[in-house]
Every structure is written in structure tokens, then in C-alpha cells.
Automatic annotation (TrEMBL):
GO terms for molecular function: 2-oxoglutarate synthase activity; 4 iron, 4 sulfur cluster binding; metal ion binding. It comes from Anaerolinea thermophila (strain DSM 14523 / JCM 11388 / NBRC 100420 / UNI-1). This is 2-oxoglutarate ferredoxin oxidoreductase delta subunit. Keywords: 4Fe-4S, Iron, Iron-sulfur, Metal-binding, Oxidoreductase. Residues 5-34, 42-71 form the 4Fe-4S ferredoxin-type domain. It is an enzyme of class 1 (oxidoreductase). Its EC number is 1.2.7.3. SUPFAM superfamilies: 4Fe-4S ferredoxins (SSF54862).
Amino acid sequence: MPVQGRIVVSDLYCKGCELCVAACPQHVLRLSPDRLTAKGYHPAELAGPGCTGCGICAVVCPEAAITVYRQKAPARKTAEA
């Protein structure tokens, strides 16, 4: 089962710099074409499925506007002797 992730972008802090978009190894981030923040920026958002929750976008964000959530992997079953 592949690991799935999601992000939450704070409209208060995101300034639409696109550093997260460029850094995403899965190429699933984009700037929202139809939303604007209160400061007039197009915030980052997930463009579709495929986020693995790697966290690279959050690391490169100069405003710390991205929170990454990663699906917890199911517990492995241990073999009984």
C-alpha cells in the first residue's frame, strides 16, 4: 500500500512564491488559479492525487505556510511461532 499524504497551506502566510511547486518530487503542487489570499496572492494547493507526505514542500517554504500530513502505515503482522 503506497503512503499517502496531504498538505494544508495557510492563506495567512503563503505568498505564492512557487518554491514548493518547484521542489515537489511528485509534481502534485500548483498555485491555485481561482483563489486569492487576503494579500492578493494565489496560494499553493494540491493539484491532484499522488502526494506521499515527504515534507519537502514544507522544508523549502520560507514562510512556514505548509503543514504536511502523512497517512500512518498499517501495523505489520508478526508471525506466530
